[in-house]
Amino acid sequence: MRGAALGFVLGIMANTASAIPGLEPGVSRELAQWRAKHYRDVRYALSISIPRGTQKLDGTATIEVTLPASRPDLVLDWRPSPRARLRQLRVNGKPARTRIQQEHLIVPARFLRTGKNRVTFAFESPITPSGGAV
Hints:
The chain is an alpha+beta fold and 134 residues long. 19% of the residues lie in helices and 40% in strands. It is built from 2 helices and 8 strands. Strand 1 (40-49) and strand 2 (56-67) form a beta hairpin. The chain is globular, with a radius of gyration of 18 Å.
């Protein structure tokens, strides 16, 4: 019985140790340091197209990251305009739900695995001529 209680307490401590620091718009020093501690081998591939005659851009993104055994949530920077859309989000090849909080796209740990992970999605965003507001 005491062994089970100790395992429960250690599990809570491990989850607390890998908890995301307070999120705010932009990337705080605390968040940058937390990411450096928990994420390894981060790679991005981004493709953007602006179809002639439209006022939007279309894109796809692939993000690869290696995570430790504690598997924290994955916090990506995401500052969309109110009319931007995120589509076809997949984590390790499977559809996944995320949340947007304080200019960050958060992939819950339950969709991730220890080691290499891949997040892919499509997006669109309105654009305006230089100096215009979106």
